Here is the input.
Amino acid sequence: MKVEIYSDIACPWCYLGKSRFERALAAFPQAADVEVVYRPFQLDPSAPPRPRPHREVLAAKFGPQATAMDDRLAQLGAKEGVAFDFDTVLENNSLLAHRLLRFALDEYGAATQAGLKGRLMTAHFGEGMDIGDPAQLTDAAVAVGLDRDAVTAFLAGDALREETLADIEEARHLGITAVPTFVFEGQWAVQGGQETSTFLQVLEQIAKETAAVSEDPALAVDPADACADGVCEAPATHRH
Here is the structure.
């Protein structure tokens, strides 16, 4: 089973959703047969390429309710073992980090890319990392096994920039307008940082559906009807 996760490093719900999905995957008996690939998405592609305090950016967007939004996420994260330190979070354009994730996928594979994604999110939301700074991105990459010289050279140029932008555009073409969005087998999608139990239910149901279809193609179902209670829907019909 292939799971493509569309998310932004700068999205706190993506961080929370990643943790919950990984818990579900750990409890899924067929986890060894699941390939997880992270796809890029930018919530704010027009963000300037310079670090800005998260509290200020959020307050400018949402006003007085910004603090309550952060507090809620911090409480939810604490229950999952996910640390949010919004006082130290720096907002920056995430394109450079997405390029690095694409590099990790192409050169090292999906498992290393997932490790880098986790490292970037942990550092961004809990350690005050600037995700637009090449030196800090390089340190994060080296921490999960990438070669320092190769990463330094990559980030100094424009390699994979157009490919990453094309990936982001493809997500929008698929109808993805909010993240995280989890696309299973290119057909079924779950949007949002769902509960671990929901992700596990989806994994189990899609495994049954794909197994049934492989045995008898006549059993193929409409993707829009593939998951119970409206949890999953076709990629072209996402709802927030």
Summary: The chain is about 50% helix and 10% strand. Residues 45-167 form a domain with the Glutaredoxin fold (CATH 3.40.30.10).
